[in-house]
Automatic annotation (TrEMBL), chain A:
Active site: 328
Species of provenance: Kushneria avicenniae
Reactions accelerated catalytically: Preferential cleavage: (Ac)2-L-Lys-D-Ala-|-D-Ala. Also transpeptidation of peptidyl-alanyl moieties that are N-acyl substituents of D-alanine
Parts of the chain that traverse the membrane: 21-42
Basic and acidic residues bias (residue ranges): 620-632
Official protein name in the record: Peptidoglycan D,D-transpeptidase MrdA
Ranges of residues in domain Penicillin-binding protein dimerisation: 65-237
Length: 638, 378
């Protein structure tokens, strides 16, 4: 490099070059800054609307406001289902970052068993929409709340949320009829309007809670809140308050329900009591019961398995879904059919040698009393529950007419208004058998059906409904559980009410009532042990449903058979005869004779409803037991 | 060194009686522009930091220190700067090498040099000053406009530190250092033919650059080209900053009323993205005022560089001012979504340490070349 001295001229030339270049630079700077300003005009003026919308969407979140669930009362305004304040733990997955890690920390902080990890992970996914909190744990205790509060910084997306939760004060004996609410499952999401359930964690799963879900749930509200980038709510902008669910008043009397529960304690069975005039279901008991409160907060797998696999099937609603042969309780209905079809006159008699034989058939269809009742007319046939009489009648009627007439009493179909999951039972017919088994109908099968056995199955609810229709002289009212939904009274007439059962001669109803009253009070009445000291006119009919089919020559010996093969004890009754206020059906599974085991229970139910002052459960139980012993001494039967 | 400061002291004692801006080696107009921008920046910072006085105090304190540095540097005559340029350049380059070996990691890059208990700083910041000084010192000794040989020497001088900085990696700073050197060369009067050839070569080298980029740098470019492709990930920043600016409208949402910034949707809102806070809260009006202030500052700076009494001063001053412009343009450009995201703060406003000190030191140099009137003897 050859160093050169700069001359003054050089220096001036350089200054000139620099000036030119710097003026150019100043101009370029101006242009480029104008470009930036242009960019700002584009963003802030031209596209302003787009960005203001986007920024509002950023900061505002619409939060659902879950409505309070309607309460459920019994007819005396006693609370059956209420809402209890609890603290729940919720998680918003979007805010949690690593969900698995957050759940692990939770388990650590709350000292939960390790195996809860999968359960909680599963629950965290059970929600309707993104950015919606999923319910992890319900009903936190104070210590848990404190632990969460202290560790909150380690638990992003986790919130302790105050919420009202369902509580059933009378869980054990109300569980089947009320049903329960539980966390909304994937399945439930198919049948609901998810926007109305945003923020609601529970939904009616069974029973009344399920049937009246829409009314009980109410209408969700919304509020708009401002949140920061991490999703924390900072303030409320505005809100549309939720409409709370309607309160529900049931026709049930919880005292009667409790009594039924006490009377069936230790047994398996069901009681349904109906007010004949209104169709109001006064009691609907299924034993054994279960505590439905456990299902609200999420029952653990082990307890659930224990309930599900229990041989006594406590989860099974026997009253509405249990299917039993109605047995001899159908004899009054059969008699009415015979009269209406003109097959018998009340005074016609049948000779009972202790068995019935079809023409040209050696097989003997035995009466329950081996040596027979001799000559029996219609009333006596009902009173002593003679089988031969009804074999004869059934044979004359034929299965088609029999089946058609029993449908009028509601057998074979569910006619209840609002009993969730009520069974249809089974009213067999020639067509049914062909469709089901592709077989012809045998005349011998008509005989079994004629005494309420064979293929015939009915639910306790259907049995109670039928006896209630009978007590009403054939007038139908659909059985129902709701008395008042919100401000709306639920009262007959109801839509789709079946046609009334009509008899040519209305006087015939009186004959049947008399025959059934004789069951309780007649010297031969099968229920007379339970008919002692009646202070009102009671009518009843016993039934004993065979579980175990006996061979032709065998004799039933209760002591030798396993308990679960014992006959089912049935009893249907109503009272007072001249102005029926209550009709009841009782079934005790494997209880043995209906008049011996079921009748005392029915009597206690009627006493409780008709006489002033309901007895305590123990007192009624003692009384029922005395009648049971009395029946033993009297050797009644059906 | 010592006798230099003694001379400065004696001279200021002599001129004490007729104290004026010249004697202080300051320019009142530049000072006014700087203070206006800094004061406005502190107001925005208060809002961006979530009404935190801590940030504002720290920032103000930092500027006080930076002002002292500026004041001191303004007293140094350009002649001395020219003399020390080479020394300074070599020392800083060695520091960059040291950073490469023993530097401190932060945010995925090795940028910091720590002298334990004393100071922790980024040598690359110092290179922003050393680079234009050296190139200007070199070119001012040559016959201008520069020829091929000069250009090659300058490229070599530039290449070593830029390579070291890019290797840290620090794309933003290496770009600014490159710019400062290039501006010296351009202002020295590089012929347009050279410029055209170099620009052509630069464009041709683009693919090469792409393959030498770090993954995160490539991601930034891709995100810039299509921010919606990953709205919650790497596209988040640019979407949120555009939303902030756009939602501000003409008048803005008002001071401390910006929802994007106050509710923390805007990332890095007190550092690199602070201009989005301004855009959101003060709208187009606020943005225009700021850009005008910057424009006036740059124009004044260019005027001052023109008034320098030697080539070194002109080249150095002009380069510093134009580099400052690049700062502003790249930052506002990236925040408003016209440039890819590179880590360049908004000068004088973004919260941060070393950058503001170097900036003010640069302005100190500019004031020095403007106010020291004795022509440098050859």
């Amino acid at each position: 490099m050859r160093p050169r001295r700069a001359t003054l001229e050089d220096s001036e030339q350089q200054a000139r070059i620099f000036r030119r270049r710097s003026v150019l630079a100043a101009f370029v700077v101006l242009i480029m800054f104008s470009g930036l300003i242009g960019r700002m005009v584009w963003l802030q003026v031209v596209q302003h609307d787009v960005f203001i919308t986007r920024s509002d969407k950023n900061r505002m979140r619409v939060e659902p406001l879950p409505p309070n669930r309607g309460l459920i009362f019994d007819r005396n305004h006693q609370v059956l289902a209420e809402n209890r304040p609890t603290y729940n733990l919720t998680l918003v997955r979007e805010q949690a970052g690593d969900v698995g890690q957050t759940i692990s920390r939770l388990i650590d902080i709350l000292n939960l068993p390790e195996d809860q990890h999968d359960v909680l992970a599963q629950r965290s996914r059970e929600r309707l929409r993104s950015y919606e909190p999923a319910l992890l744990l319900s009903d936190l205790n104070e210590e848990q709340i404190a632990r969460i509060a202290v560790n909150r910084y380690r638990l992003p997306g986790v919130e302790v949320e105050a919420q009202l939760i369902r509580y059933y004060p009378d869980g054990e004996w109300m569980s089947h009829v009320l049903g329960y609410v539980g966390r909304i499952s994937q399945e439930d999401q198919q049948r609901i309007d998810t926007s109305n359930y945003a923020g609601t964690h529970f939904i009616g799963k069974t029973g009344i809670e399920r049937f009246y879900e829409d009314e009980l749930h109410g209408q969700a509200g919304v509020r708009r809140v401002e949140t920061n980038a991490r999703g924390r709510t900072l303030r409320e902008i505005d809100r549309t308050p939720p409409k709370p669910g309607k309160n529900l008043t049931l026709t049930l009397d919880s005292r009667l329900q409790k009594l039924g529960h006490d009377l069936l304690k230790g047994k398996r069975g069901a009681i349904v009591a109906i007010e004949p005039k209104t169709g109001a279901i006064l009691a609907m008991v299924s034993e054994p019961g279960f505590d439905n409160n456990k299902f609200v907060t999420g029952i653990d797998t082990k307890s659930y398995a224990a309930l599900r696999d229990d041989v006594d099937m406590p989860l099974y609603n026997r009253a509405a879904r249990g299917q039993y042969p109605p047995a001899s309780t159908v004899k009054p209905y059969m008699a009415s059919a015979g009269l209406e079809y003109g097959l018998i006159q009340p005074s016609d008699t049948v000779y009972d040698p202790g068995y019935y034989q079809l023409p040209n058939d050696s097989r003997r269809y035995r009466n329950w009393l081996r040596w027979g009742h001799g000559r029996v007319d219609m009333k006596r046939a009902i009173t002593v529950s003679n089988d031969t009489y009804f074999f004869t009648l059934a044979h004359r009627m034929g299965i088609d007419r029999l089946s058609a007439f029993m449908h009028k009493y509601g057998f074979g179909e569910d006619h209840s208004l609002d009993v969730w999951g009520a069974g249809n039972g089974l009213m067999p017919s020639r067509d049914w058998k062909r469709g089901r088994y592709n077989q012809v109908w045998y005349p011998g099968e008509t005989l079994s059906v004629g005494i309420g056995q064979g293929y015939w199955l009915a639910t306790p609810l259907q049995m109670a409904t039928a006896v209630s229709v009978l007590a009403n002289d054939g007038k139908w009212v659909r059985p129902h559980l709701a008395m008042q939904v919100g401000d709306e009274q639920i009262a007959p007439p109801f839509e789709n009410t079946p046609d009334d059962v009509k008899l040519d001669n209305p006087h015939w109803w009186g004959l049947i009532h008399q025959a059934m009253e004789n069951v309780m009070t007649g010297s031969e009445g099968s229920g007379r042990a339970s008919g002692r000291n009646l202070q009102y006119r009671m009518a009843g009919k016993s039934g004993t449903a065979q579980v175990f089919t006996l061979g032709q020559k065998e004799k039933y010996n209760a002591a030798e058979l396993e308990e679960r093969l014992h006959d089912h004890a049935l009893f249907t009754a109503y009272a007072p005869v001249d102005d029926p206020k209550i009709a009841v059906a009782v079934i005790v599974e494997n209880g043995g004779g209906g008049s011996r085991v079921a009748a005392p229970i029915a009597r206690e139910m009627l006493d409780a409803w008709i006489l002033p002052g309901i007895k305590s459960g123990n007192e009624a139980q003692d009384h029922a037991r005395q009648n049971e012993h009395a029946a033993d001494r009297m050797a009644t039967g059906d | 060194m010592m006798d230099y400061w003694q001379r400065v002291y004696r001279r200021s004692r002599r001129q004490y009686q007729r104290l004026g801006w010249r004697t202080l080696h300051l320019d009142p107009w530049l000072l006014l522009a700087l203070l206006t921008i800094i004061a406005g920046g502190l107001i925005v910072l208060y809002s961006a930091g979530g009404e935190s006085t801590y940030l504002v105090e720290a920032q103000a304190l930092r500027f006080v220190a930076a002002f002292v540095v500026m004041l001191l540097i303004a007293q140094v005559s350009p002649r001395t700067m020219k003399r020390l340029a080479w020394f300074f350049y070599i020392v800083v380059t060695l520091m960059l090498v040291a950073v490469d070996i023993i530097g401190t990691h932060a945010m995925g890059a090795q940028r910091w040099l720590t002298i334990p208990g004393v100071i922790r700083f980024q040598p690359s910041e110092l290179m922003k000053l050393a680079m234009p000084m050296t190139i200007a010192a070199y070119l001012s000794r040559r016959v201008l406009p520069p020829g091929w040989l000069d250009l090659l020497v300058c490229l070599a001088l530039m290449g070593v530190p830029v390579g070291l900085i890019a290797n840290q990696p620090d794309l933003g700073t290496s770009m600014l250092v490159t710019a400062s050197a290039v501006f010296v060369i351009l202002l020295a009067g590089l012929s347009w033919r050279f410029i055209a050839v170099c620009a052509g070569l630069g464009i041709a080298a683009m693919p090469l650059l792409w393959f030498n980029m770090h993954q995160y740098q490539r991601q930034r470019v891709l995100t810039f080209l299509n921010p919606e492709s990953d709205p919650l990930g790497s596209g988040w920043n640019i979407i949120q900053s555009k939303t902030a600016i756009g939602s501000g409208g003409i008048h803005g949402k008002g001071w401390m009323q910006g929802t994007q910034s106050q509710l923390e949707f805007l990332p890095e809102r007190h550092t690199d993205f602070i201009v989005a806070v301004l855009g959101e809260e003060f709208g187009l009006i606020g943005m225009s005022v700021l850009m005008t202030c910057y424009l006036l500052l740059i124009w004044r700076g260019l005027y001052m560089a023109n008034q320098a009494h030697d080539t070194f001063g002109r080249l150095l001053g002009g380069s510093l001012v134009l580099t400052f412009f690049v700062y502003v343009f790249v930052n506002v450009g990236m925040v408003s979504g016209v440039l890819p995201i590179v880590g360049v703060p908004l000068p004088l406003i973004s919260y941060g340490g070393t950058a503001s000190v170097t900036l003010m030191a640069g302005f100190g140099m500019l004031m020095a070349v403007f106010t020291h009137h004795k022509t440098t003897p050859r």
